[in-house]
Write a structure and sequence with these properties.
By secondary structure, the protein is of the alpha+beta class. Helices cover 35% and strands 20% of the residues. The protein contains four helices and eight strands. The protein has helices spanning 30-40, 52-61, 92-100, 119-140, and strands spanning 9-12, 16-19, 65-69, 73-75, 80-82, 86-90, 105-107, 113-115. The strands form three sheets. A four-stranded antiparallel beta sheet has the order 5-4-7-8, covered by helices on one side. Strand 7 (105-107) and strand 8 (113-115) form a beta hairpin.
Length: 149
């Protein structure tokens, strides 16, 4: 799985220097695929497009997804408030807020809240980790079997 920060400046075919997210056109990945190829030499053979509603339904369909936390975490902008360390099982709505979080904070040993210093890279890492966990839950639930899916 490969992710690009949405605010990464690249040459977008026919549009000049733009943020890579401007190359995204819903239901047509061709401009984004061309932009990735032109800037990084990576050919996009396949893609999956999942909207927010589908993401939430997938998480709920597998019974939620557990993520371990070393400390309490929060993001007041999206309503994430994990009050205790340990495993937290996200429902679809909460999972969407978590993977979209751009201002995640963790509770430090001194009792202060510290912003994630990795910013967008931290968000990308959380998204990738979460997707791996969703796929693992789907596999455990037998969703690789078309009859179960």
């Amino acid at each position: 799985m490969l992710s690009f920060p949405r605010d990464l400046w690249v040459q977008v075919a026919g549009h000049g220097k733009q943020r890579i997210n401007t190359a995204y056109v819903p239901n047509d990945y061709s401009l984004l695929a061309q932009t990735i190829y032109d800037n990084f030499g990576i050919t996009v053979d396949h893609y999956i497009q999942v909207d927010f509603c589908a993401f939430k339904r997938i998480v709920d369909a597998v019974g939620g997804v557990a993520v371990p936390f070393d400390t309490p975490v929060r993001d007041r902008n999206v309503g994430i408030d994990i009050t205790a360390p340990g495993c937290h099982t996200f429902s679809g709505d909460e999972a969407l807020a978590y993977v979209r979080s751009r201002h995640l904070e963790s509770l430090a040993a001194d009792g202060t809240w510290k912003a994630d210093p990795t910013a967008d890279f931290g968000r990308i890492a959380r998204q990738q980790d979460f997707l791996r966990r969703v796929l693992a839950r789907a596999t455990e639930a037998g969703l690789g079997d078309p009859a179960v899916a």
